[in-house]
Amino acid sequence: MKKILVPIDFSDRSSDALDFAIEFCEHIKGELTLLHVLDFPSTSFNSAGEWNLDFAQSLYEEEFIKRVHSQLEEWGDRVMRRNPEIPLTTKMEYGSTYHSISKEITEEKANWIVMGSTGSSGIEEIFIGSLAERVIRHADCPVFTIKGPTKISNMKSMVFASDLSNEQDIIAYKAKDVQELFKLNMHVIRVKTPHNFLTEEVAQQQLKDFAKRNYLKDYTLNTIEADYSDIGISKFADDIDAGLIVMGTHGKTGLAHIFGGSRAEDLANRAHVPVLTFKIPFD
Predict the structure, then answer these.
(1) What is the C-alpha to C-alpha distance for residues 33 and 135, in angstroms, rounded to an integer?
(2) Digit-coded pLDDT (tens) for 213-265
(3) Is the pLDDT confidence value at 22 over 70?
(4) 254 close to 134: Cβ distance less than 8 angstroms
(5) Is there a contact between 2 and 111 (Cβ–Cβ < 8 Å)?
């Protein structure tokens, strides 16, 4: 049974992500784990990095801890009211939100992640980044980034954004699986930017070759010009009223991320519709 991890902070975006995750879980007949992390300050740990039991005990006596437990139970009840047949686990962890999510992904072998995001930009994005962006960058499993109320049943089409290279073929097969699962039309897009500009003739030929070698069905082939890929993809998705954007990511980190960035992470920040990212395997 496939495991779906839903990190929640009880915000509106987390609520949207939970609603989507419930419907997605019904589609794949999976199981849900709701994870909330209390991100305590560094004073809650001793010099060895171990949990300060005295501090933890005092925190547990605080009323807000009880309220958090109650909220988590209420969100679990919400899942059961929607579908009591869904296998459900609720968890509360303490410490760094990102590291707690990463630990859960690894230890529980999560197959999918569904999380809400409001995005980030500018200096904050470069040096901190949104939580969803960091998860996309490092997670080996697919990540749905939810930006607002979303119903799979209302989706009619998806955008598959690709540079059409051979390494994208594995992502094409994953995109085809999603297309079949949600019964969507696929719109393949190649963005032409000043940094990778192609003539229309060359771009169209690459699109046709890509579609043929990956045996695509129920698809259209499209090009668009934009200053940056994420801007072009987001605009195209808005223009055709797409329900979902699918793309691969290399998961750049460190200086490669700061100076090169990642189209998938930038798109997850910018797009108005859900973005599903798959990690491109290293050779």
Answers:
(1) 16
(2) 999 999 999 999 999 999 999 999 999 999 999 999 886 443 333 333 467 88
(3) yes
(4) no
(5) yes
